[in-house]
C-alpha cells in the first residue's frame, strides 16, 4: 500500500476511505456480532485480515476506520498508536526495526471473538530473530505469526502472514524453508505433540512466485500446506485470476469459497496494486 501513490494507486489520503470501506463491507457480519451482547446473535463466524506492505500511518488509519475511532496519523508520525479495540486489533511490527519503521505484514483480528495467546515476528534471513536482508533479497522480509483462541468454541488457531521478496529467487526459496520450519515448531508446541489432533493453521501472503516457480513448488512439495484456491470448485470462484495489476496471480491464500475482489471503482482510484483475496474456511 505505498503511501505516495506508486504503481498506479492514488495518494493514501484518497485510498484510505476506500480500503476501509471494502474491509467493512466484507467484515460486517463479524462487526455485528462483536457489537452485540444478545446471546441470540451469538455466531461462530470469524475473520482475520492479513495485509502486506502496510506503513505505520496506514495501519493507524485502517484500524481507526474499522474501530470507528478518530485516526491520529495525519501528522505522518510513527508515534501514533494503532487502535486496539473495541472491535479490532492487530499483531505485527515494522520490518526494518521490529517496531514502527518499514512496512508491516500485520494480522488484524476481532477482539470480541479471538483471544490472543501468542504473537511473534520472524525475519526471513539467516538470523531470524533480528532485521536484515536475506541472501539475494532486495528488501527485509518477515513472517508474522499469531496463536489465537476462538472464544465460542475454545479452539486454537495459528494464523501466519508473509511477503516474500520480489527480487531474489534464492531468498524466496530459503524463506519458504524458514516458514515451514516455524509452522512445524508452532504445530508441535500448540498441539502438545498430539499428531491426531493438530491445531488448524493458515498462511496468507504475497509469495511473488508463480505456481511454476521454486518457492511455490517447494511449499506444495512439502505436503504441509494446500492452496485454498485448489480446494474450491472453480464454479465457486469469484473475481479475476490476477491479484496483481498487470501480472499473474501471485498472492496466495493457503487453507470454501475463494474470491479476488475488485481494486478499482468508479472514481478510477486503485485501492492497491494487489486486489484483495478472500477465502472461506471451516474448522472441522
From TrEMBL:
UniProt keyword annotation of Hydrolase present: yes
GO molecular-function term, one example from the UniProt record: 3'-5'-RNA exonuclease activity
Superkingdom in the source lineage: Eukaryota
Keyword Hydrolase: yes
Entry-linked Gene3D superfamilies: Endonuclease/exonuclease/phosphatase
Keywords for this protein: Endonuclease, Hydrolase, Nuclease
InterPro entries xrefs: CCR4/nocturin_mRNA_transcr, Endo/exonu/phosph_ase_sf
Annotated protein name in UniProt: Endonuclease/exonuclease/phosphatase
PANTHER family for the chain: CARBON CATABOLITE REPRESSOR PROTEIN 4 (PTHR12121), ENDONUCLEASE_EXONUCLEASE_PHOSPHATASE DOMAIN-CONTAINING PROTEIN (PTHR12121:SF36)
